[in-house]
Structures are given as structure tokens and as C-alpha cells.
Specification:
Length: 101
Amino acid sequence: MRAAFKGSVLPKGTPPTAPDVASESPKPLFPDIPDFYHPFADSVLSHADFQEIVAGSRVVWIVGRIEYFDGSKRPHQTQVCCRWDRSRGVFIPHEQGNDAD
């Protein structure tokens, strides 16, 4: 299995791109050691970005791609594309580019 997830803050109306998993090393589904993955771990949300998110002119996204083999060794992929819904205060599946509803 290979998986990659990326967090981004983009202007409203700008769709995100899925991360490339070809460079990702295989990861176990359930490692012995708990893994807490944070797609925004290597970025800092600026005050200006925060204000624009609250105002609705910028959108927070989490996009990902998971590649795996099923029980018959056939390859599959799942695209994940969620955006922050500021009115509800939660991430919701995006209408496009998302296989995980």
C-alpha cells in the first residue's frame, strides 16, 4: 500500500491537485506503533490565511491518494478530496475528485 495526503489553503474556486504517491514508500495499514499523521505538519497557518478562510475567500483542503492490492492481488486506487465547510465547522467530501464519500 502507498498513501500520500496533502493539506493546502487555496483561493476560493481553485481546485487542489492530488499528491503523487509514486515516490512514497509502502506503509503498513496498522503499524505496531501508533502513527498520528497530520497533513499540515510541515506548514504554518498565517493569521492572514486564517482571516481569509473565515471570510470565505480561501478554502482549506485535504487531498490524498491511496494505492493498494485487493485479496486477489489486483491493483486499486482511492482518491480522497475533502474541503473545510466553514458554516458547519467540519471537513466534508468534495463533489469532484473524491472516491471516499
